Structure formats: structure tokens, C-alpha cells
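Example record for the data management plan.
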Amino acid sequence: MRKLRVGFAVILVMMFIMVCFAGCAPADKGAEEKGNEAGDGGGEIEETGKEQEEGKETGEEDPDQGDGASEPAVESAWEIKISGPGGEKVFAIETIKEMPLTKISAQKKDETFEYAGLLLSAVLKEAGISEAAKVNLEAEDGYSSEISGEVAFSDNTILAYMVDGGDLDSKSAPLILITTDDTPKAWVGQLVTIEVE
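Corresponding structural encoding:
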């Protein structure tokens, strides 16, 4: 009698296993056939599923399914640091180019050029600086000059990123301080630091 019960239990377990495998096999086969009918699209769907599983395992997020979180910051092509009594602020060249455009004509070596950029005073105000006794300017290569606070806040002093409608030359790009209220010796190309006192 006990052998009969054990035999019956074994048969039930085997039937259960066969039903499970039989139920799974047609679903997989049907999905595979649909994938083959769809051509390359079926393969893409299968790969996407695998990629999603791999992303879960590695902790990576799917960029197409963002939850509103901010994207990683993109590194700027050029940055300028402005420091003053209230602290320090860094501006990316991309941000500077979004500010209102100002043009001035300036003479250097008996030639007149039209420079375009933004008022230095506008950037200083964005940095929380509304007055200055003097302003020190420094280029990437270490060249520096000093202008008075009056010149810095003048409408004739700009941070230029264009000359005569085109890009600046390689010695000045991407940003040069231009002023008509001081000599060209005060001009600083490849500007990286503005220190306000």
C-alpha cells in the first residue's frame, strides 16, 4: 500500500512538471515565431529585455526612462572665475554667450575692429558685484593687467567672444576683455580670472 502511495506521488509530481514545461514551451515558441515574423525587430525586443536586466544587475538606469532626475553635468569648453569681497563665482562660456550681446569698435595698431560680447559690468553684477576700486584680469598663460573700477563698469568695456562677425584668433579665443576707456595693454585674451577689489 505504501509503495502504491509513493508511486502515485511520483506520478503526480511528474505530471505537474510536464504541465509546467508544456505551458511554458508554447508561449516561448509563439514569442519566438512572432519575433521571426517581425524580422530584426524581434531581435531588438529580446536584446532590450536583456539590457534592462543587465542594467538592474549593474545599477545602471535606462536613459530613456528617466524619472525626472537631472542629467550629468556637461563640462564647459571654457570657464572664467570671478572673485570679489562676497566670494567667488564661475561662469561657463556657454552661459556668457546666452547673455545680451553688445558691440563696440576698438582700435589696435591703427586698425579698427568690431568686437561683440557682453558688458563686463553685466557679468560682475551677475556675480553679485556692484562696485570696485580696481579689477585684476589674468589670462590662461599668466599674462595679467589691471583696470580701474570705473573702466570695469563702463559701457565701453566688454568680454568679447567675436571680432568682425567671426571667431577670435587663437591668441585671444575664446574670451578677451576689450575696452576703449584704457590702452590695448589692458586687454586680456584667453581670460580665465577676474579679481575685484
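Summary line stored alongside the record: The longest helix spans residues 2-37.
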